[in-house]
Specification:
alpha+beta; single chain; 162 residues; 7% strand
Length: 162
């Protein structure tokens, strides 16, 4: 679904050593930030990208089946093939900050073409009449999983005040 929105998608595995060369090619001469949930393997991936770096890693927890938090502070490395890599600590949860409910849909590139066709300019695209986004979802023009993600984020805006 992301490729359909012109995002570059790579299948990369540090464990299987797959997709590393293609990732390295994209990183050459650029500054890249490595970010994601705690314990997903960011440090393991960096160790594959930069042989000899040997960042500390931990095994997946036997009782929870989840990775363990290892990186404790952000650090920038010069890449041997040109460019820089910023390693960040894992995050437990992402939150939406300073976005109004009526603005959220504008951050979903796949929803943008339909937003202005809604009957109401403050449409939240949930159950309003004349909603072009809902029509696009029903017609398969917007992936249902993306819409569910949008609706979940929309609901969380009131729940969490950061």
């Amino acid at each position: 679904m992301y490729e359909a929105m012109d995002y570059k998608v790579l299948l990369v595995s540090a464990e299987k050593k797959e997709g590393i060369e293609e990732l390295v090619a994209l990183m050459k001469g650029k500054t890249t930030l490595m970010s994601g949930h705690s314990g997903v393997g960011k440090s393991s991936l960096i160790n594959q990208i930069m042989p000899g770096k040997e960042l500390k890693t931990k095994a997946v927890s036997g009782w929870s089946g989840k990775g363990l938090h290892t990186t404790t502070f952000a650090e920038m490395f010069d890449l041997p093939f040109g460019g820089r890599l910023i390693d960040t600590p894992g995050v437990r949860e992402f939150g939406i900050v300073d976005i109004e409910k009526t603005e959220l849909s504008h951050y979903f590139l796949d929803m943008r073409p339909y937003i202005t066709a809604c009957q109401f300019n403050n449409c939240l695209h949930i159950n309003e009449p004349g909603c072009a986004v809902q029509v696009a979802v029903n017609e398969g023009k917007i992936d249902v999983d993306r819409f569910v993600s949008y609706a979940s984020m929309l609901e969380s805006i009131d729940e969490k005040q950061y």
